[in-house]
Fold these 2 entries.
Entry 1:
Amino acid sequence: MKMNYLELATDVVKKAINKGADESEVYLELGTEFQVRTRKGEIEILKQAQKRGLGLRVFVNNKLGFFYTSDFTPEIIDTQIEKTLLLAKHSTSDEFYGLPEKDLASQKKLSDLKIYDPQIETIDTKTKIELAKRAEESAFSESPNVKNSEGANFISEKTSVILVNSKSEPISYDSTFFHLSCEPVAEHGNEKRIGRFWDSKRFFADLDSPEDIGKKSAQRAERMLGAKKVRSQKVPAILENLISNRFLHALASAVNGDNVYKKSSFLASMLDKKIGFDLVTLIDDGTIPKRLGSKPFDDEGVLTRRKKIIDKGVLSCFLYDTYTAKKAKLASTGNASREYDEIPQIGTLNFYIENGKTPLEEMVKEIKSGLFVTDLMGFGINWITGDFSQMVEGIWIENGELTYPVDEVTLAGTLFDFLSKIEQVGNDLDFRSPLACPSLKIGELVIGGK
Amino acid sequence: MSDMRSILRKNLLELFSEEEFKKILDEALSQGGDFAEIYLEHRISTEILLEEDKLKNISYGILCGAGIRVTFGEKTGYAFSGELSFEKLKEAAQVASYIARSNEKIEPLAITAKKIKPNFLLESPVPLLEEEKKIRLVKRANQSARDYDKKIEQVKIEWYDEAKNIAIINSEGIKVSDTQFIVRMAVYPLAIEGSKRFEGYATSGGRVNISYFDKNPPENTGAEGARQAMDMLNAYDAPAGSLPVVVGHAWGGVLIHEAFGHSLEGDGIRKNTSLMSNLLGKKVASDIVTVIDDATIPFGRGSFNIDDEGTLGQRKVLVKDGILQGYLYDKLNAKLMGTQSTGNGRRESYRHYPIPRMTNTYIEKGETDLEDIIKSVKKGIYAKKLGGGSVDHTTGNFNFLVREAYVIENGKITRPVKGALLIGNGLDAIKKIELVGTDLRVDPTTGTCGKDKQGVYVGVGQPTIKFSEITVGGTQIKQL
């Protein structure tokens, strides 16, 4: 079956060249997805499906045309190849357009990367349903306050990527994804609090146990019961490792070579400058076995690699795909990222702050009065101006101890503040997301409250 | 016209014969499910990206497929196929059927095609324009943003339009189809001065005819985005703490959408996980507050003739003079709650099962003029333009980014402030609405609401609203 798709992709690339493209490329994605949600011990949703689509990119006289389809009817694709070439004529010619240079990708390292778990073919539906049920059961048995639930989800996905272009040999790889999450609701009087905990892994056997996920989700719901607002003040804060990665999403946009080129990043002119605390080292690396952000080559076929973005507080590198690298007179860093229905853009792989040495308990102990932040919400992290403002929930720290829950407050500052006021980096780096960050102690941030 | 019309599959209902549809539904109900549905979709979209004065991307896409749903009590089985063949649909029906385990087999009712009367006419929908004309509109917006001020160093413009045919055939005998068009143009001008930078934002579009751009020329959108970037370039840091807040009209309605609307969606109500469960007929807001969800507003971004389950789009009064009147239901949650769908069953595409969602949600107009609202504030914030927001519908805690805000001192707007988030609790905040303006506008141009990893287009709106108190998340503790 897959062979046919490879033939289809190769055929489309050739036809585009025959119809007048200078260069052409097909990115084809095939996937199967399975989802079960159980709620109060019963199946609520069972979803199973196959997904497919292809994106055709053509370059004609340094102009770009793009077409995508989930309809693989040959006549539809054929007529649309011509249409794509016509679309290219309308775009602006740009000398930096084009496919990556030949021979950048090799299939050699595929097996070392361990991003495909063959077990996905054999896990039966009953087992998957049981996992979700067990997670939720564990949440219910954790506390009598857990009286309701939004359910527990098990998701498994298999994705195949086929990349064919007119310059190089075709390449392809398979990957798998497993996810188990639980969302119980703790209640006390009229008050309701939802708790969320999850794990995501490339390999089924590596998932946290459902009991553990259920238990932690219940604890996260229950510990917020009775939360109150505190007054506006400046205090030290600890960002828990589960949520500290929210800042990395904004940093990823700030070190995106395209944004840097357009000066729409607060870090645009900061290369080689000290922007953060000595203990902050930020890495982007697509080559770590089994990690969610790992892939052998990026979505244009360039080999992925390891880069230090911030090296001991010094900004040392930006992220590039082929087009933006050419503009900056650099080499692609292997960060082209896309779905089949998009043209490549710059994205991150495994993007993380290196593990530190301080245990979380130690950070808490040293704070006289401050906030242990357990959730961050909102769109307010602005990588262009470098300002941030977030709605947070957490636990108040008093004399080195966690005391009562806090909600309906904001945490605000600048991203420079954030990077330079990090005083301690936790030893609890955890890769349940491709963007990962240990717990961080920030010297001083502004809380907005009463 | 472009060739979009020729490849947009005109009548999805003609893809299969009556008998074939019946066979698919039969298969879906073969394990004893109590409801089965076929959703067919064919969508064509055009995207244009202009930045650095270059047309960097003009793309064109086709999305098509079918989703089969079977429900059995509270359970849903769902399967989809990207291939519109009888065999594939039957296969999907079989997969979905297994959610049910019952000996009682229900026969699908005889299918009767249902004609629908459109809520508004689109004689010349924008998506059917030739690409050259779309590009011209984009270029006009770019030029006007750049001409606004020489400090506007970059302008990015995103254009997206789609033409979509959908069809729904279900075991209750419904067979219905519709065509939906939408367009959105977003302008992002970046103003730079020394180390200061600010990105402005303005949008236009809706489910509109070509003539829309005569009344709303792209130049206006370009200039509005540039004005915002320039006005906010030298903004001060925002205050932190609880303050009176005036929220601007139109897109400001996103606050009611997030802080309140989500809590009224039927899934959270049925599961009793929403803070608004069991509050029907109770006072939930100030007397001056009336909230509407209306899928029939002409040209609205959240408007449709039928929802994604084939139910007619409707206008619903959710809150009347502060009293909670109703919830938003899809078919499944309505059935489980012993009521009727309100035409709010929506989905992102055939790859998703429908869930209860808002359409165009707004606060009805009130009696106080903008000027008098501003005058009534001694020390506070005028949040003229909000950005995105989100809510935890269990607690009702919400947050919004403020894109453009000013300090109000002694009834006068004084200086711009940046970077603030507005946060609070929905149930609490809606009671703190003190004044409702006369300048109601429902924003048809932008708004994509995300829930359970599905995005759907929505309209939001309100007149200018004054809250007696909202927490402002700035950095200046004692500024005011």
Entry 2:
Amino acid sequence: MENERFARMQKTTRLHLGMEATETLQRLTDFPDQPKAMDYFYDFFRRTFADGLTLPPRPAEQKVIGTMCLQVPDELIVAAGAKPLRLCSGAYAFDQVGAEMLPAKSCPLVRATTGMLHANHPDWGRELAAVVIPTTCDQKKKCGEMIATMPYPVYNLEMPSTKDSEASRLYWQESVKQFTLDLQGITGRKITARSLQAAITQGSAASALFRRLDDLRKSGGPVIFGKDIFLVTSGYFIDDPERWGNAVHHLITELEERKQAGLTVGNRAAPRLLLTGSPPIFPNLKVPILVEQSGGVIVADEVCSSNRLLSDGVAYDQVTLNDMVPAVADRALKPCTCPCLTPNHDRSRRLVELIRDRGIEGVVYQAFSGCLPYEMEQRQINTTLSGIGVPMLYLETDYSPEDQGQLATRIEAFIESIIARRRKK
Amino acid sequence: MNRFRDFINTIRISRLRFWTQIVAFLLLVYGGYLAVNIGNELPTFACVFTDQRGGSCYLMGFQHQMSLPWNRLFSGRGIGVVMGFLTFVGIFMLLNKAWCGFLCPLGTIQDWLTAARRKTGLMYATYGEGVFQRLSTIKYILLALLILLPMAIGNSFFGLPKLNHDFGVPFCMICPGRTLLPIFQGDLSQLAIDFSSTTKMVLTTLGLLVTGLFLAGAFYKKRFFCLFCPMSALHTIFHRAGLLRLTKNGTKCTRCGNCYRVCDVGIRAIADDLDHHNIVKDDCMMCFKCVEMCPEEGCLKITFLGLPIYQSTEKGFFTRMGRRTHGK
């Protein structure tokens, strides 16, 4: 009976997920002048989400290690010969599964991720060698306990809730060192200085590519929509890094050519916006799509599924594990602007710098209802932004498609007001 | 021009430093053979005990001058002392702390020891923050002593008896430059303990002890000795006015801490200080590894008379990291 119910749930979820992905991809591609090189990413997500969520193809002996939050140092997992898979889900279909297990007012991202692991546990429970959850926000921490009972081999990566003191930095380094040792047990492969160096180089290459892509949005007429950027970075969660890198490389080449030829996507003078707050992850690209359908263009972001995920590079001083492991740990903690860290002045500083550097005219702040850290930081970010005279639109939303009409009205009004401000100047 | 700039910003300044240090070492330690002498007021350890040197450390002459009795120090003789000091300040300001990072022979020896440790795969030692703060005050005490002890030779403090002339150059007696640099010219005589007087015996014994500490310390701790260097303490007074500068644009800093990670001296402020534009700190030796390892466009800059020479760039950072199989 129980099994039957589960099988039915699994089947409908799979169906819903497929529909949701198709619908989102339909809306993503429904823009004029799309770069050709984006097709790789559209196809990738079409394939991956078509029939449930399939884990990416990989060599049979390679272990997959699921991670939540960008504080998990992927480099170590790669160095141990395993495939890191970022689990944070943006799927409403999984959100609905998770909603049955978690409180009504919890964060949709946590619900969706928990739901995804639940719906896939018969296969994934075997396939995932570990689910690594850093102790970031309360909901991620507590969902870990639930996920462990499904069962999955959950690994709690201890993280400090502040990063300013030297003590917190050392605590985190110790915790990452322990993780390095435990990873070798999980994968059965030794992490060597050489393998870690190669993994760091691989991570750096991805960061360098992302930065080049991101730099193309810095100035001039927009050559790529923000919604596409979020799709590209969502791809980094699951795709093979080499294939992903090649595809991004092609995209950059095409965009550079377009820039040279003076081609733009959408209106050349579209209001330049920045998106910050809770992370947009495929298929939940609702807000970016609405913003860009309404005539704005997202030319910068400050979210953990994109800019924050891929901006930073590891700096080590010598090729030995006892220098490189702490270096990797530093990369994951020190520049992080996650609101689970207190105080988080670095986030407002980063926003101000992005606004200055990219000529941002307005900020869209997306907070998932139930994601308290982002909801609470909204006020202080708003104060900072009004201090420098940049308008901010605060959107509290979730994964359900129901609030789209209401959101669209507010976004349109916001963009109208930015255009009106220009006239006044 | 822009392409030239781009090229400059992608080079590895550490590599440039490595070769500069070798050239400077040869010049300062062996310059005498080529009849080179670049001055007697150098703000770096070009040791006077090395016979065929290419220039002289200012501290030796400075200590000598400090042993003059007051009445002579404040007479016509004082003009020479002041001129010497101004020359020292002038030469120092030209290159600022880069004298330490690029030219100092003792610094270079420490970097060679670091390279040797690296080959063995051993981890470097670091200090906790509190220890670092406390240790870095030692150099000021040494500076005070190297002024006060010679002064007590020519003058009587508070009616106390004057010190004997064996205290003439007290810092030189314990400086590892005196014991180590002559060795490079085959002169081992400085490694002896001088039994001619009690003072000399104590000072030369201390000197050998410090030399031992220097060698062992620098092997495990990068730039171990620099934290105690009284020359660096003397620099501190003028480094803010140096012509060569390291500057930081705090608004561009993400506080990722890459600069602090690779800092050989362990200056935390380079990552956390967001307010100061001129970011050269007391213990900085201007090796510019921080600039190399900063991924933020134009966050850290090296300037000379306000003109940018080299700066941190995204491209530079990733190019260097990609190219590197590190070590050298």
